[in-house]
Amino acid sequence: YLRNQGRLERGSFIHEEIGYNFRITDLQAAIGLVQLSKIDDICRKKGEILARYHEQLDDVEQIRFIRVTEGSDYVPFRIAVFADRAMELMKHLEKEGVQIRSFFYPLHLQPAFKHLAVDRASDDMFKGAKEAYGNGLCLPSYPGLPHDDLDYVCSKVKEFYGGS
C-alpha cells in the first residue's frame, strides 16, 4: 500500500489505504532531466492542442471547458471538460477507439479515508467533487498528438451529440 498510492491494483483510482508514490529510478531521473530541457516545447504543444480543441468544440453546447483565470500561466496537463451524459460519451469514444480518462474519484469517498466518518449519503460539503467526477472527462492531449487524431476525437464527440 505504501509504495502504490494506497492501493493493491494498478490502474484503479480506488485507494483502500493512505499510500505514496516515491518510486523513481536513476534511469527515470535521467529521462526527467532530458524532458525538462524540452519543457518549453512541450508546453507550447499542449497549448496548441487545447486551442485546437476549443476551435472545434466551443460550439458544442454539451461540452464545457474548465475556465482558466486570465493572465495565469496554465499548461493543460490534461484536456479536462465537463460533458452532458459524460459516462455515455466516454463509452461511445472508447467504442470508437479513443482512450478517455475520467476525473479522479473524489477524495472524501476513498476507502482509505473511511475512518473520517463523512456521511456520504447526506453530506453535501463535497458536492463539487461529486459533480466533477460524474460529469468530467479528459480528452487525449499528449504533446505528439497528431492533428488528424485530434480532429477524429472532435468528430466523434460531435457525432455523439448529433452534430457534424
Outline the structure in words.
With 164 residues, the chain is α+β, with helices and mostly antiparallel strands. 39% of the residues lie in helices and 9% in strands. The protein has a four-stranded antiparallel sheet with strand order 1-2-4-3. It is globular.
Primary descriptors:
globular; four-stranded antiparallel sheet; 164 residues; single chain; alpha+beta
Write the layout of secondary structure elements.
Blueprint: H1 26-37, H2 39-57, E1 63-65, E2 79-83, H3 86-95, E3 101-102, H4 127-135, E4 136-139, H5 147-160
Antiparallel strand pairs: 1-2, 2-4, 3-4
Helix pairs in contact: 2-5
**Would you tell me the overall average pLDDT?**
88
Structural category is alpha+beta
β-strand number: 4
Tell me the span between the first and last alpha carbons: 47 Å
Oligomer state equals: single chain
Order of helices and strands: HHEEHEHEH
Major beta sheet summary: 4 strands, antiparallel
Percent strand: 5-15%
Q: Give the fraction of residues assigned to helices.
A: 25-40%
Short précis:
This protein is an alpha+beta fold. It has helices at about 25-35, 40-55, 85-95, 125-135, 145-160; strands at about 65, 80-85, 100, 135-140. Helix 2 (about 40-55) runs parallel beside helix 5.
